C-alpha cells in the first residue's frame, strides 16, 4: 500500500506542476503545443512498448478493437475528448487562467458523479447531492459576479468527465490506451505541424534547440504520470484514491496564487470555499470511506 500511495501521489504531483512546463512554452501557440503533445506522446509510448516487449500484445488488442464498431467509435470519441481537454488546459495556463484550471479539476469528480447518474443510472446519496449543490452554488456566485459562466473550468471538468465515461467502455491498459488515443489524432497533429511549416510559422522548424526539446518532452511528461497512476491504482483502496486526487488541483491552485500572482479576490475565495466544502462532504460520504472510518473508530 505504501508503494501504491507513493506512485499515485507522484503522478498527481506531476499533474499539479504541469502549468510550469506549459508556461515555459508560452511563446508557442496552444494549437502547436497540442499537436506536438499528441505526436510525441504516441512516439514515446510506442517506443516504451517496444522496449518492454509488449508491442505484440498491443497489436493483439488492436485486432480485437477493430472487430468491435462500438469500441472503435468510443475510442475515437475518447481521443477527441482528451485532445480537447489538453488544448483547453494548455490555452488556459498560457492565458493566465491557472486558477480556473484548478477549479475545473476540483469539480471534476462531482461532474463525473453527475454523468454516472445520467448515463449509467447510478444513484446519488444525500452527501453527494449536498456536495454537488455546494459546487453548483460556488460556480453560480462566480457567474453572477463576473457576468459570465466560468467556461474554462466547466469545459475541463466536463471533457475529462466524459473521457472517464468513455474509458469505462474501453477498459484498456493505460499504455495501450494512450497509444491508441494518440494514434487516432496523430495524423491531425502531423498535418497541422506541416501546415504551419508551409506557412513559415512553425516554431519547431526554426531549430531552436531548447524549444524543440521541450516540445518533444511533452510526450514524456504526458505518459509518465499516467503510467505511475496505472502502477499505483491496484495497490490502494478506492477511497484513498478519491482523497489523493485533490493533490493536483491543490498544487495548481497554489501555483496560480503564489507563483503566477493571479487575482484572488473575495469572490474567488467564496467560490473555492464552496467547492472545497463540497469536496469534503463528497469524500466523507463515499461508502468505502465511511466504512473505513467506522472501522477505525471501533478500534
Please characterize this protein's 3D structure.
It is built from 14 helices and no strands. The chain has 299 residues and is mainly α. The chain has one domain. The chain is globular, with a radius of gyration of 20 Å. Helices cover 82% and strands 0% of the residues.
User: What is the helix tally?
Assistant: 14
Q: Which segments are poorly predicted (pLDDT under 50) over 5 or more consecutive residues?
A: none
Structural class: mainly alpha
Shape: globular
Find the count of extended strands (DSSP E, 2+ residues): 0
Helix content: over 70%
Main sheet makeup? none
Secondary-structure element order, N to C: HHHHHHHHHHHHHH
Query: If you compute it from the alpha carbons, what radius of gyration comes out, rounded to the nearest whole angstrom?
Result: 20 Å
Portion in beta strands: under 5%
**Mean pLDDT over the residues:** 87
Amino acid at each position: 500500500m505504501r508503494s501504491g500511495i507513493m506512485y499515485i501521489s507522484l503522478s498527481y504531483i506531476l499533474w499539479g506542476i504541469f502549468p510550469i512546463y506549459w508556461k515555459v512554452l508560452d511563446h508557442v501557440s496552444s494549437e502547436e503545443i497540442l499537436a506536438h503533445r499528441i505526436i510525441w506522446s504516441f512516439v514515446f509510448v510506442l517506443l516504451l512498448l517496444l522496449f518492454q516487449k509488449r508491442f505484440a500484445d498491443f497489436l493483439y488488442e488492436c485486432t480485437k478493437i477493430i472487430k468491435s464498431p462500438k469500441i472503435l467509435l468510443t475510442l475515437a470519441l475518447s481521443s477527441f475528448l482528451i485532445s480537447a481537454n489538453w488544448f483547453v488546459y494548455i490555452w488556459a495556463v498560457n492565458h493566465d487562467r491557472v486558477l480556473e484550471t484548478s477549479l475545473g479539476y476540483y469539480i471534476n469528480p462531482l461532474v463525473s458523479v453527475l454523468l454516472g447518474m445520467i448515463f449509467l443510472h447510478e444513484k446519488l446519496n444525500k452527501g453527494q447531492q449536498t456536495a454537488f449543490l455546494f459546487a453548483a452554488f460556488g460556480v453560480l456566485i462566480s457567474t453572477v459576479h463576473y457576468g459570465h459562466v466560468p467556461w474554462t473550468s466547466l469545459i475541463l471538468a466536463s471533457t475529462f468527465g466524459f473521457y472517464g465515461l468513455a474509458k469505462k467502455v474501453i477498459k484498456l491498459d493505460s499504455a495501450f490506451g494512450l497509444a491508441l488515443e494518440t494514434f487516432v489524432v496523430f495524423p491531425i497533429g502531423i498535418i497541422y505541424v506541416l501546415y504551419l511549416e508551409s506557412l513559415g510559422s512553425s516554431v519547431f522548424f526554426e531549430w531552436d534547440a531548447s524549444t524543440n526539446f521541450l516540445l518533444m518532452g511533452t510526450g514524456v511528461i504526458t505518459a509518465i504520470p499516467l503510467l505511475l497512476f496505472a502502477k499505483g491504482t491496484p495497490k490502494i483502496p478506492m477511497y484513498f484514491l478519491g482523497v489523493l486526487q485533490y493533490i493536483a488541483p491543490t498544487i495548481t491552485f497554489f501555483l496560480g496564487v503564489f507563483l503566477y500572482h493571479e487575482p484572488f479576490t473575495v469572490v474567488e475565495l467564496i467560490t473555492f470555499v464552496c467547492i472545497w466544502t463540497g469536496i469534503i462532504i463528497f469524500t466523507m460520504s463515499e461508502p468505502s470511506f465511511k466504512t473505513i472510518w467506522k472501522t477505525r473508530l471501533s478500534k
